[in-house]
Amino acid sequence: MSAPAIEALVFDLGGVIVAHDNTVMHSALADRCRAGWSPAQVAEATADARWGTGRPVRELHAELVAEAGYDGDWNAFTGDFCCHLVLDESMLAFVEFLAIRHRVMIFSNTNEAHWQSQVLASGGRLGAFERHLSYEMGHAKPSLQSFQIVAETASLPPHSMLFFDDVPANVEAARRAGFRAEVFESEANLRAMLPTLDVVARR
User: What is the DSSP letter of 129?
Assistant: First the structure.
């Protein structure tokens, strides 16, 4: 028996449509902290998963000001906090092309500051996609509940959704939740893979 047809393509954001190097962000934040605060300490402060599940990032700014002597205002902070994100224009254009004929959505572990910075960087193009963002959902990958919420919100059975993520643990979690899922390696690899899959075009 053949696999069910795919009714939606679901893409991660970071590492797929947006490149990121967290060490760049940690260094930028540490440069404004008092002497003795290292990028590693900043990394620890920013690692709290709650920043990606709804805790306001303004509280992180306040914590760094109070505990690390961070001397930048909110605008400086958001610049430092988002400086490691680089929109992949080619990949974004390809996902937009796919969305002409297919139902396409974004499912990302992110916070409001990072998401808004990339919507701005894309000239609003990212904001046009159907999206499922951890900070709005209150749940993040690789929790099974996060995938269940995506399927329920999209009103689709999980087996009809094909998910791409650069993190193998997230791909495995998607499969456990019933999604079809593949590790994203590159745009070229994705382009080669999609013709082999039974994806339903929009009517």
Answer: S
Q: What pLDDT digit, counting tens, does each position of 99-148 carry?
A: 999 999 999 999 999 999 999 999 999 999 999 999 999 999 999 999 99
Q: Which residues of 151-169 are buried (b: 16+ CB within 10 A; e: fewer)?
A: beebebebbbbbbbbebee
At the topology level, CATH places domain 8-19+87-196 in: Rossmann fold (3.40.50)
Handedness of CA 18, 20, 26, 28 (dihedral sign): negative
**Phi–psi pair at 143, nearest 5 degrees:** -65, 140
| Residues contacting 108, CB < 8 A, separation 6+ | 12, 13, 14, 115, 131, 132, 133, 134
Name residue 44's amino acid.
E
pTM of the model: 0.93
Domain boundaries, the chain: 8-19+87-196, 22-81
